[in-house]
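Weekly sync, protein design subgroup
Attendees: M.S., D.O., the rotation student, P.L. (late)

Item 1: inverse folding check
M.S. brought a backbone from last month's batch and wanted to see whether the design step gives back something sensible before we order anything. D.O. pointed out we never logged the input encoding, so this time it goes straight into the notes. Structure tokens as presented (171 positions):
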């Protein structure tokens, strides 16, 4: 739970101090998707939180199931080549959910993935410089910041535009 430290400001002569614990390997893992409505008017943010866990194929399948429960019509998921994404268990979902299509980003191309811009913004802007001592506090802080991001349509659109994918978003 080492905090991400970013440049900050302080009154002259008063060096800011960020207290934190060392040697803690606790973390909050998250699965996320940024969605675009069929008419390109709205973006959505869907997240599954897994405090102090690694993401497994079971988590991915549960996320896809919940995503399909919230979205109507055909759903195309474009994602990176994480091992959990490529598992047999995940690909078995394709047979169960006929309106789900999986597409892949090219290898080693995180700049094409809008969710990578979300993670960067969440980690390096929204939760930076917080010396949180408890896993629950980190989880609460990250969820609160993600809720703010989810409500901000221009910010969600900026993640998609930054990826330079040809999505044809309306202004």
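Designed sequence read out in the meeting:
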């Amino acid at each position: 739970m080492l905090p991400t430290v970013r440049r900050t400001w302080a009154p002259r002569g008063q060096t800011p101090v960020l207290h934190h614990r060392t040697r803690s390997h606790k973390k909050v893992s998250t699965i996320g998707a940024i969605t675009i409505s069929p008419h390109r008017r709205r973006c959505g943010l869907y997240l599954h939180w897994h405090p102090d866990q690694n993401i497994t194929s079971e988590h991915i399948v549960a996320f896809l199931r919940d995503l399909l429960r919230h979205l109507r019509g055909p759903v195309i998921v474009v994602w990176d080549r994480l091992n959990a994404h490529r598992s047999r268990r995940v690909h078995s979902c394709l047979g169960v959910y006929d309106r789900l299509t999986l597409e892949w980003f090219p290898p080693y191309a995180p700049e094409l993935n809008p969710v990578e811009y979300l993670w960067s913004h969440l980690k390096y802007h929204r939760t930076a410089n917080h010396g949180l001592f408890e896993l629950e506090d980190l989880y609460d802080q990250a969820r609160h910041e993600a809720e703010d991001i989810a409500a901000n349509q221009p910010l969600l659109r900026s993640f998609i535009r930054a990826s330079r994918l040809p999505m044809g978003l309306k202004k």
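Discussion: Residues 78 and 103 are 5 Å apart (CA to CA). Helices lie at 57-70, 88-96, 114-126, 135-150, 153-163.
Action: P.L. to compare against the previous round before Friday.
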